[in-house]
Design brief:
Length: 212
């Protein structure tokens, strides 16, 4: 199927799954409308790319449901100038969305096969403002810290100390918090040496794993 064949389902996805469910950030909506999700999944699953569900991408990992990608991105409240750290590159879809909304994305993936897959996908999509690393995401990426925002696509009991230390004053960190497949989206903000914590949607994510 050609690119034009996916234009209508992508626009329907944005209207029915995002806008209808409360995604209001115009820049996020435009990014979700622009990034071709079907190019980030296996060819056999391309026909399901714009459905309201996560999809397998190998290694026991998934590409997140479109609504969850948009919701987490909207919670970062990006304006365009930010340097964003992403934990869990996966196939690169969330990375591609973020790259359209900030100055640069620094993304870490612990699984070599997915790291290479994301590299191929993002190169093909010509996302030049992305830096990728294969390694332990729980350590962050100290070389390029501090970051204006951090987004984690894996669930844990809370953010590792490295992420908190690498977040700029006033920045936002969004991640799923919980265990045993039951999580809630939490946004942490660093303000005046204290941490503000806000809780949002219930969700299900793969677990955050330490180690490369």
């Amino acid at each position: 199927m050609g690119l034009a064949s996916f234009e209508r389902p992508r626009r329907r996805m944005v209207a029915e799954q995002l806008i209808a469910r409360g995604i209001t950030d115009a820049r996020v909506i435009e990014a979700m409308r622009a990034v071709p999700r079907h190019l980030f999944v296996d060819e056999a699953l391309a026909g399901h790319a714009y459905q309201d569900s996560s999809l397998p991408i190998g290694e026991g990992q998934t590409i997140s449901q479109p609504y969850m990608v948009a919701r987490m991105t909207q919670l970062l409240e990006l304006k365009g100038h930010e340097r964003v750290l992403e934990i869990g590159t996966g196939c690169g879809y969330q990375t591609a969305v973020l790259s359209r909304l900030c100055r640069r994305v620094y993304s870490i993936e612990r699984l070599p096969s997915l790291h290479e897959r994301a590299r191929r996908n993002l190169r093909a999509a010509r996302h030049a403002n992305v830096m990728l690393k294969c390694g332990d995401g729980t350590l962050g990426w100290e070389e390029y810290a501090p970051f204006d925002a951090i987004l984690a696509a894996a669930g844990g009991e809370g953010p590792p100390e490295a992420w908190l230390a690498q977040l700029r004053e006033g920045g936002a960190l969004v991640m799923p918090v919980g265990s045993n497949g039951r999580h809630v989206l939490v946004r942490y903000r660093r303000q005046g040496g204290a941490w503000c914590e806000e809780r949002f949607d219930d969700c299900v994510f793969v677990p955050l794993v330490r180690g490369g």
